Amino acid sequence: MTFRLDLRGPVAELTIDRPAKRNAISFGMWSSLPGLMDRVRADDGVRVLVVRGGEHFSAGADIGEFRELRAGAAGVARYSEAVAAGERALAGVGKPTIAAVDGFCVGGGCQLAVACDLRIAASDARFGITPAKLGIVYGFASTKRLVDLVGPAWTKQILYGAELLDAATALRIGLVNEVHDDVRVRAKELAEVIASRSWVSVRGARTIVDLIAEGGREDDGVRALYEEAAHSADYAEGVAAFLEKRPPRFPEAAAGYQVDMTQSETTQSETAQSETTQPGAHPINPDPPYAPGTPEPPDLDVDPEQFLEDDEKERRRRAGDVDEPA
């Protein structure tokens, strides 16, 4: 399996579901993201999207595909555009997004998490962006998103060193918003809170924050948001609820989008999978061909266990605990 998209009233959930590969993200998975995000955007009942993995959020790109799909300049360009388009689709879905991160969140997995509005991490989560271990230059838009979160100096350290950061460090530098023992519960709780707020307010805030991040200024479009809010039913309900000392029930929520924590959820599931390949397309879950007798290359940005072992050896070497190799 690859991605699973579950539509649950106001809170949708996108699950990276490739556990045998530690949720490595294939070319086909990147390519499927724009279509999945179109479905989230088009569903008026969805207010928030939670993106999560399983034991690991994602250990990175499926490097096992690189020999075939990134062969030559044309292959590199095609692969890079699929990644960029998937990332743009998630970042531009137009609704609040929360990454719920357990385990390893490395390379392309970290790229997806950074493209979300908010990131909630488990206390044992590990983060890294590792193109410096592969001879790849990290993309401009992805780098900008990272700079916007952690600043230029930490972006340089993350990209130069390609080392893993623990959750405490990620929280301290602003890479994640919160650290919790039960990430899925906290992400769901936060998503439900956001979904219960005024959609006029949330949509306006997201638009303005994104505009500021892109270097924009207050313009007629922003002023139109103020005007819309001032004349909205949400505004009337919010003021009335405050004066009457009761929780607000915003009109869209009253029409069926209000989060009810006492009722069980109903779920519509859609799996982002394809059994057929269109002309010129690549299957979502390919088995890359290798010449007989050729060792299969690693299929992740990093092997997590080996990464930790190598990091520990490097730390000990720098501390003088082990001798340099002869």
TrEMBL record:
<feature type="compositionally biased region" description="Pro residues">
    <location>
        <begin position="285"/>
        <end position="297"/>
    </location>
</feature>
<feature type="compositionally biased region" description="Acidic residues">
    <location>
        <begin position="298"/>
        <end position="312"/>
    </location>
</feature>
<feature type="compositionally biased region" description="Low complexity">
    <location>
        <begin position="262"/>
        <end position="278"/>
    </location>
</feature>
<dbReference type="Pfam" id="PF00378">
    <property type="entry name" value="ECH_1"/>
</dbReference>
<dbReference type="InterPro" id="IPR029045">
    <property type="entry name" value="ClpP/crotonase-like_dom_sf"/>
</dbReference>
<feature type="region of interest" description="Disordered">
    <location>
        <begin position="261"/>
        <end position="326"/>
    </location>
</feature>
<protein>
    <submittedName>
        <fullName>Enoyl-CoA hydratase/carnithine racemase</fullName>
    </submittedName>
</protein>
<dbReference type="InterPro" id="IPR018376">
    <property type="entry name" value="Enoyl-CoA_hyd/isom_CS"/>
</dbReference>
<comment type="similarity">
    <text>Belongs to the enoyl-CoA hydratase/isomerase family.</text>
</comment>
<dbReference type="GO" id="GO:0016829">
    <property type="term" value="F:lyase activity"/>
</dbReference>
<keyword id="KW-0456">Lyase</keyword>
<dbReference type="InterPro" id="IPR001753">
    <property type="entry name" value="Enoyl-CoA_hydra/iso"/>
</dbReference>
<dbReference type="InterPro" id="IPR014748">
    <property type="entry name" value="Enoyl-CoA_hydra_C"/>
</dbReference>
<dbReference type="GO" id="GO:0006635">
    <property type="term" value="P:fatty acid beta-oxidation"/>
</dbReference>
